[in-house]
Amino acid sequence: MELKHPYLLFLGDVADSLAAKTALGIVDWRPNWCVGQWRLEGCKADAGLPEMDARAAAEAGAKTMVVGAVNAGGVLPAHWVASIVAALEAGLDVATGLHQKLADVPEIRAAAEKSGGRLLDVRHSTEKFATGKGTKRPGRRLLTVGTDCSVGKKYTALALESAMREAGMDADFRATGQTGVFISGRGAAIDAVVADFISGAAEWLSPAADPNHWDVVEGQGSLYHPSFAGVSLGLLHGAQPDAFVVCHEPTRTKMRGVEHPIPSIRDVIDLTIRCGSLTNPDIRCVGLAVNTAALGEAEARAFLDQVSGEHGLPASDPVRFGVTAIVEELRKSFA
């Protein structure tokens, strides 16, 4: 699906910044797409944008109100419905990343029918995907993969897209999760695609392109995670990456939500090449992206030097230190 921007970010009355991580992620990567934020009484999150309601946002040029907050279960709170109706009445589209569909709420459905505004449930794509074919297609692709879920694959992909463009490369971020779709304005939430069509959805996201064009595909889950490996494998086969970057968080001992130990970086490199070679025999690793938020600067730099030496690859924290070295390795590898 494709979203119209600029956005009004709706934060509701969430209790903390973590609950507004979708909105904050949009502001981090697409601040020029955001005209303001709408917060209800008691909201404890702040995206640092001008305060405005739907009517004021529409007058300021907003096209879509993004519900930039999340909660357990992905259910729309009943007291947010009036704000969504107001946004539709002001002429805006409304988009959410919640599991609950907007049109399942009668008041919202009626308001959308009356205004003509679109209801965009980012987790529920209306695209009809084909099954993956695995046929080599023109253009180049880079995929971020992980030793675990929630280790920074989206932020790494966005940082790579930005640095590649700054280096004069033709590159586009391809979103595979709901926050990524809001940031890119286009994409599909791969974790909500029926299993048989995951690789086909990835092929749709990163279609044939100019031989020098790079699609930077946001990774999901981990090939080693017992809950999400199916999504990770389908995405790997469909994205057909020429290059991949391994994302890692060094202080974890177990993968999130399960008792399985974190695999080594080497394990992930080897398994990604082994599985990825089914659709691209020339797949290769070009760098390591390490989330060092839990480490002091000296400790972080020492760890990056260590893993870089162990694997013969550039290693960096994309948020803390940038990804220039990884982009240079990519350019060298595909010169």
TrEMBL record:
Residue stretches making up the D-glutamate N-acetyltransferase-like N-terminal domain: 39-124
Pfam family, one: DUF1611
Record-given protein name: NAD-dependent epimerase/dehydratase family protein
UniProt source species: Amorphus orientalis
Entries under InterPro entries matching the protein: DgcN-like (IPR011669), DgcN-like_C (IPR035086), DgcN-like_N (IPR035402), P-loop_NTPase (IPR027417)
Domain of life: Bacteria
PANTHER family named in the record: DUF1611 DOMAIN-CONTAINING PROTEIN (PTHR40690:SF1), GLL3100 PROTEIN (PTHR40690)
D-glutamate N-acetyltransferase-like C-terminal domain ranges (all copies): 129-327
